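Notes from hallway chat w/ T.B., transcribed later so I don't forget. T.B. wanted the structure written out for a chain they're using in a teaching module, and asked if we could keep both sequence and structure tokens in one place. Agreed to drop them here.
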Amino acid sequence: MFRRRFWPDRNQLLLLQVCLLTDKEAARSAWKEWSGRVNLDDLDPSSFRIMSLVYRRLVELGINSPDLARIKGIYRYHWTRNQVAWRGKADLLRALQGKGIEVLLLKGAALGPTVYPEPTARGMHDLDFLVPTADAARAVGLLRERGWIEQHFDVLNTIQYFHGCSFLHPDFGEADLHWHVMRSHCDADRDAELWAAARPFSYAGLNAKMLCPADQFLHACEHGQHHSLASALQWLVDATLILLHDPATFDWPRLIDQARKFRLVLCVRQTLRYVQRHFNIAVPEEVTRELALSPVPWLERLELVLANRPSTLQHGLVRRVALAACHHLKAAPHLSWHKAMTSFSLYYRLITHERREWAVVYSDWKLTMARRLMDGAAGIAFRAWTLVRRGSWPRGGLITRLPADALTGFHRVETERGSLFRWSQPEASLRLTLPPSHKTIRLGLRPFRDLALLQEDGLQFALDGQTLPATQVVRNGDFLTIRPDPQQLAVHEPHTLSWKVAAWPADDPRELGLPVSRIWTF
């Protein structure tokens, strides 16, 4: 279970242990192993997000790493991001309070100044705050009056079905307005219990409220089920530091009670087991026993299984719809089964920002399924053709089947009409093992780049650091066939294929390279 999607891989775990182990020698040992395994240039987004905390811990441990200056630069970057995240927000929250609307700060806004060594150690890119559900519509109106633009096409209707909405301001960045604490359980009566236990909070000249520690931990665990690529480690750091901040006064009975009420027993149980196992966090035996004996409804089990699928399976339509159905049934327990079923189409459109009617979405689904069948048939035909013409069975297929440590300079998996692919950065590489009989590499690309223009502008490939001449890279439609010199293939295994893409188009702020969908060797 721990090797699934929202649990860290080995490199990420080592970085977490650097930050969270109270045993300094064990933390130093974790840093030594991590720094020997990971190049700072290849940091994944979730590891990058906690590097400001890593910097603070390295200073505390007295570690003089060659990369310390660069890590300090990341720390300064997060300091700047935090200042931007707070800019203009205090005045906004005071305006809400002036209208008689209570404000409760969530996530980094409340955790950074309290459970972290200092606010900068907890990076933020926006401000998350909560208002009572009954005041949500008034809060939306006030944000609009002050120039904030909602990032949803029907925010007022969303109040009935969702937990919050993001707003953007041309001068003050992003703020997330919440009217329910838990994304997967939107119940005003349950929220009232969290409000009642909330504690006063003062920071940056603002007086507001924050959740009590037990509720903060529960919120962090629930956030882990809905994590983004960038926050895949942040929620675990939040949860662990909440437990470490004041263990003597942590309200364990409240955590058990609230986990049962919000139907998060399984999520809390697994998180406690993980932090106890990897970070030596003390968890009372009676808490472990109570959670183990707590009943877990089938809907909670199904939700966790779907949310915990490996990242390569996250883009399947059936999985997305099934997980949305779990969230819908769990998020609004006050709805009858009939009302839940009849309102699901609207709910799905709201959470996916789909303006069109359900029938149009269904037609798109049919096109997606047809595309997948065509792609599968094309893959079988290509393998059969290669076997007949070349006498070898092609290895490989979807880029999502390559292990993460074989890819450098790639963005997350995306989907386009049923086809999975990954954008590379302008400079990227992949590690391949070629059987003795395989002398050719073939890249399948999505048609988002004009390969002819790319080659004219200087698209370059290299194998094991040696630049390949243009004659060894042949374009055929949306495929690039690479035939290296046999002497190059005899150098060593595995081989590293790398490429460099010129900036095209020149005004593309994302600096994307090649949209790679398939990789074959034969």
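Follow-up for T.B.: The mean pLDDT is 82. Might be a good example for the class.
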